[in-house]
């Protein structure tokens, strides 16, 4: 049976096979391999809920540990914290290099800030730019359309609204929201582990911590 790994714990892998969620272990040989099983891996599972094979990956990341990402929604806030365009550019390069489609999400447009130039610059070089007010659920419908039938991850500095976006998409608390610290203007690193959440059939979201490292 073919499935997708949605969660990894020490020696325990949660795999979605068709419409079933299975708690699986891995065949001894796989454990010895240097490349361990990652969230996002497409695997073959036998009748005893043992993972026998990892199918070839489209891409793989060490930090966060995840594989087979289709698209990366890179989130920047118009303010609080202020846009880090250097980080945005680095994430775009990282995505392109790894066969992941980058999409830019400008969040917190309820705050007083001028973001028209950011939209113009990135749209002019061919990227899709979405604007949202995650806190009030504005623009979530656009994101829901984009993530349909894909494995999507979010990246961006702490406090830009990744968890709030994810929570609004599911309309439930799947990830923990963190307050942005007034002192440092950075959010707490509340999102600790990597997990894929199924939004609709075959539409998965990873709420990953902070940003992707090449
Ligand atoms: N004003 C405003 N605040 C937001 C918006 N989206 C999220 N926030 C707040 O920003 C803070 C950080 O959000 P969070 O989702 O935890 O960011 P993450 O670190 O990227 O996951 C929280 O206090 C949210 O309530 C928004 O659209 N507008
Ligand atoms: Mg978060």
Give the topology.
Blueprint: E1 2-9, E2 12-17, E3 20-26, H1 28-32, E4 42-45, E5 50-54, E6 60-61, E7 66-67, E8 71-77, H2 85-97, E9 101-107, H3 116-124, E10 129-131, H4 140-146, E11 151-155, H5 162-170, E12 196-200, E13 203-206
Parallel strand pairs: 3-5, 8-9, 8-11, 9-10, 11-13
Antiparallel strand pairs: 1-2, 1-4, 2-3, 4-5, 6-7, 12-13
The chain binds guanosine-5'-diphosphate and magnesium ion.
Description:
This protein has 214 residues and is of the alpha/beta class. It folds into 2 domains: 2-56, Beta Barrel (OB fold (Dihydrolipoamide Acetyltransferase, E2P)); 61-206, Rossmann fold (3-Layer(aba) Sandwich), CATH 3.40.50.300. The protein is 20% helix and 30% strand. It is built from 5 helices and 13 strands. It has a 6-stranded mixed β-sheet with strand order 10-9-8-11-13-12, with helices on both faces. A 5-stranded mixed barrel has the order 1-2-3-5-4. β9 (101-107), α3 and β10 (129-131) form a beta-alpha-beta unit. The structure holds guanosine-5'-diphosphate and magnesium ion (MG).
Overall shape: elongated
- CATH class category of the largest domain: Alpha Beta
CATH superfamily placement of the largest domain: P-loop containing nucleotide triphosphate hydrolases
- If helices are DSSP runs of H or I spanning 4 or more residues, what is the number of helices? 5
**Care to count the β-strands?**
13
β content, as a range?
25-35%
């Amino acid at each position: 049976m073919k499935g997708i790994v949605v969660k990894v714990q020490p020696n325990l892998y949660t795999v979605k096979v068709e419409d079933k969620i299975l708690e699986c272990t891995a065949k001894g040989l796989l454990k010895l391999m240097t490349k361990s099983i990652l969230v996002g891996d497409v695997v073959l599972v036998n009748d005893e809920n043992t993972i026998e094979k990892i199918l070839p990956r489209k891409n793989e990341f060490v930090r966060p540990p995840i594989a087979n990402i289709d698209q990366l929604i890179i989130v920047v806030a118009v303010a609080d914290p202020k846009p880090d365009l250097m980080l945005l550019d680095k994430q775009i390069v990282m995505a392109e290099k790894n066969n992941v489609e980058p999409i830019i999400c400008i969040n917190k447009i309820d705050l007083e800030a001028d973001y028209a130039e950011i939209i113009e610059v990135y749209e002019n070089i061919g990227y899709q730019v979405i604007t949202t007010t995650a806190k009030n659920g504005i623009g979530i419908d656009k994101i829901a359309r984009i993530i349909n039938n894909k494995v999507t991850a979010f990246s961006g500095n702490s406090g830009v609204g990744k968890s709030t976006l994810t929570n609004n998409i599911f309309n439930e608390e799947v990830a923990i929201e963190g307050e942005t610290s007034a002192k440092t203007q950075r959010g707490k690193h509340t999102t600790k582990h990597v997990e894929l959440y199924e939004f609709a059939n075959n539409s998965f979201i990873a709420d990953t911590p902070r940003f992707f490292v090449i």
